[in-house]
C-alpha cells in the first residue's frame, strides 16, 4: 500500500528468461522508469519500454520492477518464472524449395510450385495466428507481380505446441522469371499485430533460383554468323548461363531451326540436334555445343539454334527466339549474268582491249560485313580456265552490302582477239573472312557465257579462169592488188582497234 499524496518512482528492467540476466540490445540494458504521486493506497501504473523487437525473435523477456520512495527501495517484483511478467517473441524461419526439383533450383513452367516450410518457436499454444507469405524479387527488393497483383499466400493456424512447422504453397508462372532469384518473405500475426517475420533478401534458405540461358552461334570456319557451303560444316553454339546451382549436373540440348519455316532442319530423315552435360563450378558461365550439317542443302536459308536446359529431365530454361541474330547463321547464294561491254549482250567482240562485265546477284548476306567476289573465265569446250598470253583471266572485288540481297559488278579485262569461235563462261566465288562461302560455277549456264564470233577473212579479187592474155601483166596486177588489199585490211583493223579502245575508255 502506498501513502496517498506522496511521490514514488518505479524502475523497470527487461530480463532474458533463458539466462536470467539483463537483456542486452546492442550491448546495453533495456530499462525504463516513471515518477508519480499516489492518489490512493492501492492502484496501478503503466511503465513503457521502447525496444527494437526485430532483435528479440525467439526470446522470452521478463520484466523486473522496483519501487522507490526518494532513494529508498520500498518494493520489488523480480520473478524470472512469473508468466504475468513475461513476454514471448516468436521466431520464424523458412526453407523454400521447388516441388519439381526438390531443391532451390526453380523449374520453367506456367504453373511452377514453391513450397515454403515455416519453422516457428515461442508461440502460445491454443492461440490463433495468421501466417502471410510474399514472393520477392531479389534484384529489385520488391514484391513479384503477376496479372497486376502481388504473389502472396495467407492462412490461419492454431499451434498445439510453442514450437512447430507449417507449410505455405505458392504457384507462379516462372516462364517470365528467367535469370531472377525469388525470395520468400514471411510475416506472423496475432490479432492483427505483427509478432514475427522472416524477411532476409539474401537468405539462401528462402531463395529459389530461376536460370537463364542465351546463345551465340557461328560457323566454325568464318568465326561469325556467316555460314560457308560444304557437305560437312560445323556450327559452334556458345551457351551462356546464369543463376545455376553449382555442383549439380545439367543437360543442354539444341536443335537447328529454319527461320523461314519455323521447323527443325533435317538431314535425310533426322533432325539436326546436339546434346551435352556439364556441372558448373560457378553460378554463371558458358559452355559450347557443336552441330554438324550439310550446308549445300541450306543455301539461301538462315539457321537458328534453339537451346533447352534441364536437370533430372526437368526443364529449367530455354532460348528459342527465331529472330535472334545471335542465335543465327546465314547461308548465302550467288547467281551471275555476264555481258560483253561493247555489245551489251552475250555476244563477244574481238578486241585487244575487251571487257566482260559480270553482274553478281547475292542473297542472304549480312549487311555491314565485308565480302570479296572472285571470278575466272572458263573455256566451255574444254572445261578448263581460259589462258590469254599464258595467263588466266581473273577479276575480283571487295564490297560491303547495305542490304542482305543485292548485286555487285566485277569486270574482266582481256585481249579477246584469239578467242574467235570460242565460248567463255564466268565462274564466281564469294569469300568472307578469307573463307569460300559459296560459288556459282555452271559451265552450261548461258547467263554466265560470252560467245565470240568467227574472225573475218580478207576479200581478194582474182582474174577469171581461161584468160591467158598478158598473164604476166595480170599476175603483176594481182600481186599489186593483193598488196593493196592487205594494206587496206591492216588499216581497217587498226582503225577498228582504235575505235574499240575509244569505246572502252
Q: Explain this structure to me?
A:
Strands 10, 11, 14, 16, 17 and 18 form a six-stranded antiparallel β-sheet that branches. Strands 1, 4, 5, 6 and 7 form a five-stranded antiparallel β-sheet that branches. The chain is mainly beta. The chain has one helix spanning 471-504; strands at residues 7-16, 24-25, 28-29, 31-37, 60-69, 72-77, 86-88, 91-98, 112-121, 129-137, 142-143, 145-146, 149-150, 152-157, 164-172, 181-190, 193-198, 207-209, 212-219, 233-242, 250-258, 266-267, 270-271, 273-278, 285-293, 302-311, 314-319, 328-330, 333-340, 354-363, 371-379, 387-388, 391-392, 394-399, 406-414, 423-432, 435-440, 449-451. Helices cover 7% and strands 47% of the residues. Strand 10 and strand 11 (142-143) form a beta hairpin.
Show the helix and strand layout.
Blueprint lengths: L6 E10 L7 E2 L2 E2 L1 E7 L22 E10 L2 E6 L8 E3 L2 E8 L13 E10 L7 E9 L4 E2 L1 E2 L2 E2 L1 E6 L6 E9 L8 E10 L2 E6 L8 E3 L2 E8 L13 E10 L7 E9 L7 E2 L2 E2 L1 E6 L6 E9 L8 E10 L2 E6 L8 E3 L2 E8 L13 E10 L7 E9 L7 E2 L2 E2 L1 E6 L6 E9 L8 E10 L2 E6 L8 E3 L19 H34 L1
Antiparallel strand pairs: 1-4, 1-5, 2-3, 5-6, 5-7, 8-9, 9-15, 10-11, 10-14, 10-16, 12-13, 16-17, 16-18, 19-20, 20-25, 21-24, 21-26, 22-23, 26-27, 26-28, 29-30, 30-35, 31-34, 31-36, 32-33, 36-37, 36-38
